[in-house]
Amino acid sequence: MRIVRYAIGSVRHYGELEPGDTRIARFEGDPFTGLSPTGHIDAVGDVVILAPVEQSRIFGFAYNYASHVDETDREIPEVPVCFMKPSTSVVGPGDAIVYPADGELIHFEGELVVVIGKEARHVKPSEAHEYILGYTCGNDVSDRIVQRKESAFGTLLIGKGQDTFAPLGPVIATGLDPSGLSLTTRVNGTVVQSASTADLLLPVPGIVSYLSRYLTLLPGDVIMTGTPSGVGPIHPGDEVEVEIEGIGVLRNPVVAESR
User: Fold this and answer.
1) Does the global pTM surpass 0.90?
2) CA–CA separation, 117 vs 99, rounded Å?
């Protein structure tokens, strides 16, 4: 199933994106408390596709591909390197990534994103799939100048957490095996990242298990699993696409901040 969150005017719905991507079978409820078919069909052209989660906690894993560790000239970390983004950083498909007025070096990072479906604590890796609703595409947009200054003092917030710095979507794909999905990132149509989730240093089951060892994961939480090599700068006027096998394409323009 490919679950999509969308708006018709001021009303928001969840639905299933049907094959062909032109029709949505509308549901009643939400995927975290229960979905019921309504029998109503909406045309994709008549709706606005939204980020698949609302007011979510966003967890991120850094340096989780060896290729990205190599390109940053670092050692593979002894323990997972985690951070969080505010819910206000989330935008959906087609929404703009806002390039900060004082930004100097803003990077894209295409990533597989885990969507948690139910409360999870002390989960074994072998049980992780029971707590995962599905998967979506993500872009861990990063202000490298601020990030490096923060990281020098052991913190990380503004470099990763500015408004619009967490594009997510277009759907939550259920029933996927996350162990070997192809991931491609394009900027203005040019491929800049091409990898497989088979190369994750800490695979998805371990990611869920690790976080749940220390804190309670909640329905609607999302986990950005890390980015492969090929990260690079974006500029106003660019368009970034993150495509993951079985999920689809997350596409966002980059625009300059207006004050």
Assistant:
1) yes
2) 32
State how far the Cα of 251 lies from the Cα of 171, in Å rounded to an integer.
Answer: 12
- pLDDT tens per residue across span 81-104: 999 999 999 999 999 999 999 999
Q: Residues with Cβ < 8 Å from 19, sequence gap 6 or more? A: none
Who's near 152: CB < 8 A, 6+ residues apart? none
User: What is the Cα–Cα distance from 61 to 225, expressed in whole angstroms?
Assistant: 5
For 171-189, the pLDDT digits (tens) are: 999 999 999 999 999 999 9
Contact 117, 219 (CB under 8 A): yes
Q: Measuring CA to CA, how many Å separate 188 from each of 43, 159, 167, 169, 239?
A: 28, 24, 17, 19, 5
Please tell me the distance from the alpha carbon of residue 83 to that of residue 95, in angstroms, as a whole number: 23
